[in-house]
Amino acid sequence: MTIKVTYNNYTVVKYDNFDEITNNMNVININCRHNNLKSLPGNMMFPNLTHFDCSYNNLSSLPQNMVFPDLILFNCSYNKLISLPPNMMFPNLIHFNCSYNNLYYIPPHINCHVDTDDNTKSPEYMRRKLLI
Length: 132
Prior knowledge:
Blueprint: E1 2-4, E2 29-31, E3 51-53, E4 73-75, E5 95-97, E6 113-115, H1 123-128
């Protein structure tokens, strides 16, 4: 199952009962790019999610408990992110695109190809040092 909500002017993804789709074993792809999202729901639990694209929004942060064990592609580029949650867990991640944000730190356990074009520091620097 794919959840696709793209090219709208949404500022928030809102469901009357988000619990109805969270923990859904059938959701493998979430695409909410090209909106005006300022936040994402905090209770996102999709155990079989493989692709998540929230690029081209106005996100300044990501939910603290992002645990997607099967995720292989995560794209959060073109947002307003300044940091990433330290406890985000994507053990099978292959490609992570966080370019065109204001990131100053990438958690060291994000161990895959990282696109960081036009961020403040290089990916190696961001992995070595947390600037406060």
